[in-house]
């Protein structure tokens, strides 16, 4: 009975528990979590195809823009509305998420803006890239013949880049006389990147000065790319890399033609500008002594991304007096080996040279440097009077300002042969000492007044004066007209260098003979010629100027008595009341000692004679025998005065 009762209680308890559970489940059905958008409340996520682009999705559909991407709006805290809704702090880079266990921080997926996405430059240009780091404008830039026909307007007459010479005023003068394309001066890429003032001056251009290519010398790809991005404001049509400068400063700076043996570095320089800059990249090179190597060099540049190649038909060693003639055959071989436009450089002094070069090499254009500096009207086939061209340039220098040193250099080159005449020494001095453009204009006007009547139609022909340099008589034109610079023949230069070397060897031999005579103790032969001649006619110009200054010399020193032969202060202890230089000369000439200057010529000569005498005695003792030698040696070893 009790057993049955116990079973009944257990069954009843189970039934009550089941009914209670069912009631609880039924009553809690209304509190069941409803399905929600799985993206609601999530932090910004990245696009798989574009990891650097951030996709912001808002819980509020009304805040979404086209395609469901939220429009971020600024909040008072400096972040965005999306960040504020999700509880994120843009300054901390984490998102606060509340849960039953409290507030926890999770990493935020908010992307930081890249410094390369938008960077302003001094020239007002903006360097921008897309989300994946690439710039659509880079792939759309013209190259090769498209660049030459388009931006460069099929230019055939080109003014070369010249350090401190091809500034805006000179470029505009060259364009007036037919130049179709100009380059800026060569700029140093490190200074361009680091020096804001230098960069601002380099980026100063004018709308009428187009087409225009900027040139850099560089040996670091990253620095060159940074400089290239400063030049993407539209004021330049291409960027040229200088690989042809043969000067000693290029050797010290490790750029120009002294990079031509480092092909891997050159390839990186060209490739980084070609692939990551909006500007087309061009190169200016010199040839190798081996033609086959020159062709491989040009093809390497083309494969790296060079869009136009300028070939100077001389080697790296051909410079200065050893310049010689450019090799047009090598330029022709390069033109036939590559599929990009080629400019030829070298041997361009007259307009006829331009036509011959185009016909011989088949290049797209001809570049000139030195010929243009001495005659900017070369491309027009003209030879105007030098003062007319100089006046035109100085007027342009006022309109397109440049450093005075640039203007002075141009005036010197234009008036080169006129300034060689002794009769124009005053004009040369005025030009050299000019500190304003007005003084340069005054010098040019002096030449006009002296020689303009010789350039008029029917005027008498100019003839050199007896004291004029011989080179003026060998010129094809009168020195009053613009014409190419005539270099000294290489053979004559080599003969002159050989004569200088022979003279130096003779002087060394004479010095050696005088030294031997001095050691022998010959009193009649001076140890050396006097270092300072007392005859004013034998003094140098610098010494005469120093003597003329008089009291100005040593003005900052203490007041001292002067040497009796010059304006230098005399030695305070000198017995002869002379400066050190003249005291030394006097002692050598008259075999004297000056304890005040510690010039002991007489004592040293006497010691030399005594030493030679002892050596002769020792030699005689050795020849006479040992017995007498001991006694003689004792006598010789006694100190002598």
Automatic annotation (TrEMBL):
Biased composition (Acidic residues): 621-633
Reactions it catalyzes: 5,6-dihydrouridine(17) in tRNA + NAD(+) = uridine(17) in tRNA + NADH + H(+); 5,6-dihydrouridine(16) in tRNA + NAD(+) = uridine(16) in tRNA + NADH + H(+); 5,6-dihydrouridine(16) in tRNA + NADP(+) = uridine(16) in tRNA + NADPH + H(+); 5,6-dihydrouridine(17) in tRNA + NADP(+) = uridine(17) in tRNA + NADPH + H(+)
Keyword Signal attributed: yes
Main EC class the enzyme belongs to: oxidoreductase
Record region (Disordered): 23-142, 498-544, 608-641
Key word Zinc-finger present: no
Ranges of residues in domain DUS-like FMN-binding: 159-407
Regions of compositional bias (Basic and acidic residues) in chain numbering: 95-112, 502-518
Cofactor(s) the record lists: FMN
Polar residues composition bias: residue spans: 115-132
Residues annotated as signal peptide: 1-20
Family matches, as InterPro entries: Aldolase_TIM, DUS-like_FMN-bd, tRNA_hU_synthase_CS
Keywords on record: Flavoprotein, FMN, NAD, NADP, Oxidoreductase, Signal, tRNA processing
EC identifiers of the protein: 1.3.1.88
Molecular function terms, GO-annotated: flavin adenine dinucleotide binding; tRNA dihydrouridine synthase activity
Family: Belongs to the Dus family. Dus1 subfamily.
The protein's name in its UniProt record: tRNA-dihydrouridine(16/17) synthase [NAD(P)(+)]
Species assigned in the record: Amphibalanus amphitrite
Gene designation per UniProt: Dus1l_1
């Amino acid at each position: 009975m009790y057993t049955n009762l116990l079973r009944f209680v257990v069954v009843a308890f189970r039934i009550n528990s089941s009914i209670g559970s069912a009631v609880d489940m039924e009553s809690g059905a209304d509190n069941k979590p409803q399905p929600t958008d799985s993206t609601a409340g999530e932090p910004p996520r990245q696009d798989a195809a574009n990891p650097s682009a951030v996709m912001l999705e808002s819980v509020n559909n009304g805040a979404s823009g086209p395609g469901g991407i939220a429009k971020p709006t600024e909040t008072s805290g400096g972040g965005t509305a999306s960040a504020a809704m999700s509880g994120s702090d843009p300054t901390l880079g984490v998102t606060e998420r509340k849960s039953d266990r409290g507030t926890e921080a999770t990493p935020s997926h908010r992307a930081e803006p890249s410094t390369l996405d938008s960077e302003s430059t001094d020239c007002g240009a903006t360097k921008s890239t897309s989300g994946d780091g690439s710039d659509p404008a880079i792939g759309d830039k013209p190259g090769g013949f498209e660049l030459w026909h388009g931006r460069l307007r099929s230019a055939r007459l080109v003014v070369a880049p010249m350090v401190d010479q091809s500034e805006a005023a000179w470029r505009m003068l060259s364009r007036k006389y037919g130049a179709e394309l100009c380059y800026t001066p060569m700029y140093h890429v490190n200074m361009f990147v680091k020096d804001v003032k230098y960069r601002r001056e380099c980026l100063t251009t004018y709308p009428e000065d187009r087409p225009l290519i900027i040139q850099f010398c560089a040996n670091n790809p990253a620095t060159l790319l940074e400089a290239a991005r400063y030049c993407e404001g539209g004021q330049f049509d291409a960027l040229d890399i200088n690989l042809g400068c043969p000067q000693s400063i290029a050797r010290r700076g490790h750029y120009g033609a002294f990079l031509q043996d480092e092909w891997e570095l050159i390839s990186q320089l060209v490739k980084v500008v070609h692939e990551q800059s909006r500007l087309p990249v061009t190169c200016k090179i010199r040839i190798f002594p081996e033609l086959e190597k020159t062709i491989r060099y040009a093809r390497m540049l083309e494969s790296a991304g060079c869009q136009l190649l300028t070939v100077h038909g001389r080697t790296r060693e051909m410079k200065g007096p050893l310049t010689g003639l450019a090799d047009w055959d090598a330029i022709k071989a390069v033109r036939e080996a590559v599929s990009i436009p080629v400019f030829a450089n070298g041997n361009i002094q007259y307009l006829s040279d331009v036509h011959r070069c185009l016909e011989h090499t088949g290049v797209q254009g001809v570049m000139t440097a030195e010929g243009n500096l001495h005659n900017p009207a070369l491309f027009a086939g003209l030879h105007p009077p030098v003062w007319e061209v100089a006046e035109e340039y100085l007027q342009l220098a006022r309109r397109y300002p440049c450093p005075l040193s640039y203007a002075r250099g141009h005036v010197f080159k234009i008036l080169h042969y006129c300034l060689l005449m002794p009769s124009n020494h005053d004009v040369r001095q005025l030009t050299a000492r000019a500190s304003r453009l007005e003084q340069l204009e005054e010098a040019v006007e002096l030449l006009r007044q002296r020689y303009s009547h010789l350039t008029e139609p029917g005027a008498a022909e100019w003839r050199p004066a007896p004291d004029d340099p011989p080179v003026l008589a060998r010129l094809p034109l009168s020195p009053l007209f613009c014409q190419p610079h005539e270099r000294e023949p290489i053979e004559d230069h080599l003969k002159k260098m050989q004569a200088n070397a022979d003279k130096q060897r003779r002087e060394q031999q004479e010095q050696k003979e005088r030294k031997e005579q001095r050691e022998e103790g010959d009193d009649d032969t001076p140890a050396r010629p006097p270092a300072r001649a007392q005859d004013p006619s034998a003094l140098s110009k610098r010494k005469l100027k120093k003597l003329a200054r008089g009291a100005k010399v040593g003005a900052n020193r203490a007041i001292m008595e002067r040497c009796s032969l010059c304006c230098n202060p005399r030695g305070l202890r000198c017995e002869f009341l002379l400066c050190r230089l003249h005291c030394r000369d006097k002692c050598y000439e008259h075999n004297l000692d000056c304890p005040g200057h510690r010039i002991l010529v007489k004592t040293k000569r006497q010691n030399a004679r005594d030493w030679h005498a002892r050596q002769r005695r020792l030699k005689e003792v050795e020849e006479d025998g040992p017995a007498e030698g001991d006694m003689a040696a004792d006598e010789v070893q006694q100190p002598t005065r």
